[in-house]
Amino acid sequence: MLRKNRMLWLALLAVGLVLVTNEAAFADRLTTAITEATEAGKLTAGAEPGYLGIPGAPQLNVVLGLIWAIWVGWIFSTVGAFGGIMAGVGHITIYGLGDYAKGFGKGLKINKVVTDSIRVSNQWLVGCSAALSSFNYYKAGRLVAPLGIALAIGAVSGSWLVPWLTAGKISLKAYLGYFGMFVMFLGCYLLYEMTPAAQEKKKEAKAAAQAFQASVKAGDVDMAAQGVKIKTFTPTKCVFTFFGVEFSFNPVIPVIGGFFIAALASFLGVGGGFLLVPFLTSVAGLPMYLVAGTSAMAVLVGMINSIASYMMLKGTPVQWSLIGAELVGIVIGSMVGPRTSKYIPDRVLKIIFVILAFYVGVRYMSKGFLGYSLVPPF
């Protein structure tokens, strides 16, 4: 116990040192951007500081952030996706930071500083939810650890590479367009996955989901005996069972998939769950009841790497008071999600995913590429 406590304090000290040593980088990048915007007449010197301490920036309500973060934590821990996307909706639309950054135009550094700040703020929320969800689903016997680890191995390099290449180079308008485009694509794909032709290929996942639902309704769920059980594991094949149904996958495939998913998720400033869900249901053939926990485990590793890359390598600033309040909400939502998802049918979880994907996709794709939204805000 003493050794564990010592390691915990060392880890916290290391995080503290990283934050302290990077304060100068945060300040330098932000100060340069503010000075440039002031000289260009886009900021008024002496105006009341708002977001990130920028003169005249929006004033953020931390209570609103807390409430929105509860929803973010619940949706991510329930379907294994949309945490980062919903966090993005909160920062971009609910707080109005999207229109604020867009108002500076592409040419000023302040546009890209706020855009990068939105991206990494989203990831703080998703990372926290992913950590809690992974723990809860593992205890509940609904996490395929070897699959999550394989995805995480690939995620490490992808989540470091993209922030290094793109931080400080993406305007808010371009970010919104790409954000919406990829979400829309995933919504279309998952909609196809619900068709009879696609479902015919997933008999094992359907059988496992039905067995789990029947046990929940009967009130005799014995996750210790019927939850995920690893039977064999080799470098080319892993076999496990869930409620008497056998599944298998090649660990090499999720390693490759994890790299590309983490790279794209890091670019968009989200967790990648919206990419992992169709990957896990299609490539691995998992029922939705196993997807959320396995997705969360892979997302957690990607978020740790991506946050460190944005903040340590590129000095991206965040609003710590807002992040703190939002993390409290994430904890609440992430604890509730795993306890409520087992009562929601597998198909309903997929429908929730598709509806959110179409709404968010159309809204941000049109706003980014057309300059206005085709659908109203929440």
From TrEMBL:
Q: How does it sit in the membrane?
A: Multi-pass membrane protein
Q: Which residues cross the membrane?
A: 68-97, 143-162, 174-192, 252-277, 289-312, 348-366
Q: Looking at the UniProt record for this protein, which Gene Ontology cellular component terms does it annotate, in alphabetical order? A: plasma membrane
Entry keywords, A to Z: Cell membrane, Membrane, Signal, Transmembrane, Transmembrane helix
Its signal peptide is 1-27
Where does this protein chiefly localize? membrane
On the tree of life, the source organism's domain of life is Bacteria
By sequence similarity, the record places it as follows:
Belongs to the 4-toluene sulfonate uptake permease (TSUP) (TC 2.A.102) family.
- The protein's name is Probable membrane transporter protein
Species in which this protein is naturally found: Desulfovibrio ferrophilus
